[in-house]
Fold this protein.
Amino acid sequence: MDPLGFALENFDAIGRWRTTNEAGSTIDASTVLADGTAVDSPATLRRALLEHREDFALNVTSKLMTYALGRGVEYYDMPAVRQVLRDAAPGGYTWSSIIVGIVKSQPFQMRLAEEQKTVALTGAQPRARLGGPAMPQALQQEDTVTARAESVR
């Protein structure tokens, strides 16, 4: 397990605080981060992350951009990632500012344009995305399949 995981070990699978594990042993949540910072609780982990606020924001933005693009972040995406961070910095890197920055970014906008071009050229169905235009159709198809399965019973 990574150091961040050890620092959060006192939380069980549904987020309840615990001091012993399933076997009854006392949980030792102490660890040392890569920079040598000792961490033994969520509070000390938070303080450690706040000391590296820009690095943490860069990592979160890169991970969210990966999810948004449906692919890994490449070297040519980094100017957009840095722009998202520059725009989000004055507000303290809030979730909303990072997400809005990603949605407005060129890689995200170009991804949508490329997908629409592919759909137009090939006639293929666009991928269903949460909140995307193809989602209602995908849900409708799922409901149709469910209804057919229930009628067979």
Remarks:
- Confidence is low (pLDDT under 50) at residues 130-149.
- The CA atoms of residues 45 and 78 lie 27 Å apart.
